[in-house]
Amino acid sequence: MASASVPLLLGAAAVAVLHSILPDHWVPLAVVGRTQRWSLFRVARVSALASAGHVVASVVLAGIIAAIGLQFQRQLETQHRDRRRGLHWLLGRGEVPSQPTISAPPSVGVIMVVAAHPDDIESWCAGTLARSIDAGATVRLLLVTSGDKGSDDPRDSAADVALRREREAMDAGRRLGLAEVAFLRHPDGEVEDTRALRGELVAAIRRWRPAALFTHDPAHPYPPYLTHRDHRVVGRAVLDAAYPLARDRLSFPEHAAEGLAPHAVREVWLFSTDRPTAHVDIGAGFDRKIAARLAHVSQTRDADALRAGWRERAAQIGAEAGLPLAESFAVLHLD
Ligand SMILES: [Zn+2]
Q1: Domain 110-333: which CATH number of 3.30.2010.10, 3.30.70.260, 3.40.50.10320, 3.30.200.20
Q2: 149 CA to centre of ligand 1 in angstroms
Q3: The pTM of the whole model exceeds 0.85
Q4: H-only helix segments in 177-333
């Protein structure tokens, strides 16, 4: 029996006993006894029997109330657990682990990465992708914007910045070992979750047919309150594109004319997440993560400080799972 039920039963017994010895319980019996010409002994005996009966009835009643309370408490706990399961539960998957687990990076087939800005993947998942590539996976990157707001030089136009940053992204991709870097060229800082954007994302999923998809966590982003708007919008649109749009034949049926068949994504790895469920050891990928990040020359003021700061951050994430250097993800299984 739950610990909460024991005080309830003891309390009920105490109330019953106290009530039994109070005058309002004895006086009526004494009056009845006097009317019936009972001896004092008989009055006392009848009163004692009535009191005992009163105690037993109260304890039984308290037991019934405790049992109902216990059932209600179990029901609340079940509902709370189901809410924690979130998407996993809705889609009929297993439980979301309450403690982060150490995971191997995906290593087979095509991995598709969708990020808002040219240097996003280096921040969050390049160490993991380096390990996936070494294990045999083909990694393709789709950038929704070309980071055209990323300059404070008054001589730069947005078009200049975009061109420079696309070149840097291509160089970073080569250093990392990406098979492809593609650009959707939405305006930096102004990405909107439109049907047109979802259509572009669905077309890319149907073209590349990834076994695993990496993108920003839109539901529990890190940092929680000051996440870049583009990160939230892109993450949400990518999840919608992966499930269910890319899978369903009648969503964006115009893709069929381009030879693009429906494709079901099985696994989504959400980076920049505040609710990680998987930590990946990036000891073997850290140097390439840094090399790729330093390819974004226009976004780098002090390479040594960046290298030291990023090592410290990877060590902090690793400490959550007992790893020297790590990246963390919320992993969704959609099959
Ligand atoms: Zn970004």
Answers
A1: 3.40.50.10320
A2: 11
A3: no
A4: 195-208, 229-240, 286-294, 303-319
